[in-house]
Each structure stands twice: as structure tokens, then as C-alpha cells.
Amino acid sequence: MLFDKQTYSERRQKLKESVGSGLIILFGNNDSPANYPSNVYKFRQDSTFLYFFGLHREGLVGVIDVDENKEYLLGDDIDIEDIVWYGQVESVADMAPQIGVSNSAPISQLKALVDKAKKAGQKIHFLPPYRHDLMIQLMDLTDIHPSQQREAASLELIMAVVNQRSIKSPAEIEEIERACAIGYKMHTTAMKMCKPGETEQHIAGVINGIASSFGCIVSFPTILSMHGEIMHGNPSPQPLEEGRLMLCDAGAETNENYCSDNTRTTPISGKFTQRQREIYSIVVDCHDYALSIAKPGVKWWDVHMGVSRMMIDKLKELGLMRGDTEEALQAGAHAMFFPHGLGHMMGMDVHDMEGLGQIYVGFDDEVRPNLEQFGTSCLRCGRRLQEGFVMTDEPGIYFIPALIDDWKSQGLHKEFINYDLLETYKDFGGIRIEDDILITKDGCRFLGKERIPYHIDDVEAFIAR
User: Fold this and answer.
1) Residue ranges covered by each domain of the chain
2) Are the beta carbons of 339 and 403 closer than 8 angstroms?
3) Per-residue pLDDT reduced to its tens digit, 281-295
């Protein structure tokens, strides 16, 4: 457990007050087999269960009866055969008091609790499940088919969880800073290894091993590629080539499952070419502009649009875009170069609480997503920032040959895009710079005590050491 039992008790009490009535079921995760039952992936607890119950053991379920003000921890104790292979672990009855829960029972009693609540006319609150074993378990409890469970999930519970988990406590920030410290080691190692002849897979394997060496996991599969124009480019066996760029998007997740997420783009030759410097400088300026305007009360939608506006102006200076900036922005022409959102919430999930529904996490009644426009539809957050939010700041510029050909063949946004010049950038790749920021009382600040170099002179000096 990361926190003391009072913290978990207070979190559950606040949840009860927010939901108001009914029976809340929070499923922990089970072991997940890789290729046969006893060969499992490293266990990763469900984030919301961990937030409210703090326990990392598999096979647990937390139940909160709001009307009777009772809390339960359900799970089966391991038998002697498991003890032989995995060692002694605490009983469920011993774990429950450690997190301030008075009642414990075997998992078989979950059905009885749910049936009792149904009979009493209580609403059964559950979150959208994302693992198929839990979908089956939920169907057995509620008779709701897995295909209908996301729609049937409790909106009251979703919103209560989102509202609590969005604001990070000082202790949570400390844990994210630990993840950022590991992320710093990962990224600076990748930058040092970035030389002609090294393979993408070797570098990715080394930095993934850094996370493992701290007993941690990566917060998402590492993206590392010379093809930075591919948003989620997997590392390949291909050797790095002179004159190209290596994009590395990677993060660590601590033992308590708090995350970091950074991206750096490094010149494989050790120096940026003139053309690379021009594009890279625009991304740096956009990255730093977001830092200058992000603060409580500002809509993240407006930060994204402000960055996009700046990008258009600077691409016009290079001749890649043209026409009226505001008209180009409203038309979405800039998405040719910047097809994703500026950033997302981060915490116990690298895309924090995405499994609950992005429309609930990143948007609200005031700010709704634009799902129709290419690029803007990928903006994961638009709502007003609050003190305690953790966001990623990750502008990028990409030259995607297939997208260039597609838009050009349609004559799409030809009044704003210089396709003749754009043709000469098809072999460029892509650039992204990403950092994790905390929204503070008056603005925002970087997370992580050591800064991964990203300004041009700093990058070139760092990799030349």
C-alpha cells in the first residue's frame, strides 16, 4: 500500500457521498495468462480498485453498500499448494483492516450481496469493464450481457471516480515524480545510444530494462522509430541511419502504478540538419507556449487551439501553409501536420481513466468534443484546468506520405497547404516533444526534478558528451 488506511477510508467516504445510494462494486484484476494458465503476465491491479482499496493482490473485489454504510473486501485465501509455489501471503481477513474495511468474505459471497441489494431495490453501481473475465463475472452477477455492460455502467459512479481521481494529492505527485525520475534515465539513455548502426529494438529493449531494473513496468509499449510520422511506431530490427531522426515516446510506471510519459526526438547524426532545425524549432516553441498559458480556469481546448494557431503561423513562414490563419484553423487544415491532441490527463493510468470513457474524463457540459473533424477528434481533453491536474504537453509535426497523397488527391485544404513544397518533405519523418506538467495555483510546472534535454543546443551538447 502506498498510503495509510485513513487515506483509503476517506476516499471511500467521499465516494459514498458523491454516489448517494446503492451498492458499489469495484473489481480488482485477476491474473492474466500469457499462453497457458500458470504462465501469466506481470500482475497489474485495476487503477480504480487500487485508488480506493490500495491492495495489489489478484482476485479481490471491493463492495460498498452506501445505504447501510458498510464496506466489504471479498476474495479467496490461497491454499497450501499455492503457498508452496508462491510463498505465504496474508489472508483477506487480515488485509481488510489494513485499509480500514470492517467486513471480509470469500468471493462466493459476492453474489449474495448483489442479490440482497437487488431484492431491496438498490441500484447496482459498476464501472465499464475492460477485461473479458470480469465481463463474464459481471454477467453472472447482473444478467447484463458483456455487449451491453459499457452502456449499463453507472454514470454516477463514473463521474464520482473521475472527479476524485482527477485532482492529484501531494503524495500522488511525489509518486509521479518517482516515475518521472525513471523516465529521465530511460530517455537520456536512448539519446546517448542514438547513433548510426544501433537498432531501434536494441535501444527500446535497453530502456525497457531500465524500468524493470527499478521493479517497475513501462507505462505503455515503448514507441521508438525513425518513422516518427507513425504515431505509435513499434521498434523494428532496422539499424538507425545517418541524417534521420529517432523519435522515442516512453514512460515508466512505479510499483504503485503511477506513470510518466515523455517524448524526445534525437538527430541520429548528432546534429540537426537545417530543415530539421526549422521544424524542430516550431515544435519547441509550441511546447513552451503551452507551458506559458496553461493554468487553472483555462480550457485545455483553448491551449490546444492556441498551439495549433502558432503552428500554422510558423509553417506559413516556411511556406508549407498559407492563407488566413484563423480560417485554416477552423477548417482543420493544420491537422495535416498535427493530427492528434495536445495532451491528456495522466496519473495511475498513462491516459488517466480512459477506460471510464474519454468523454467523461476530458470533457464536461461546458466543453464538448468535436468528433467530426480530423485531428480535433483525437483531442483527449478540452475541459477547464484545475489545480492538481496532471497533463501531458506534447505538440508534434509529422509528414505522413499516405495522408499527403490522400488529401492532395482530393484537393483538400489546397488553399491552406502548399502541396508542391510538402512533396519534398515526404522522407522527413516526424517530431514530437512531450513533458508531464502539474497545474499549480498560478500556472503549471514540469514534473520530474531532472529535465530531459529538448532545446536544440542542449540536445546536441548532451549527445556529444
Assistant:
1) 5-166, 170-464
2) yes
3) 999 999 999 999 999
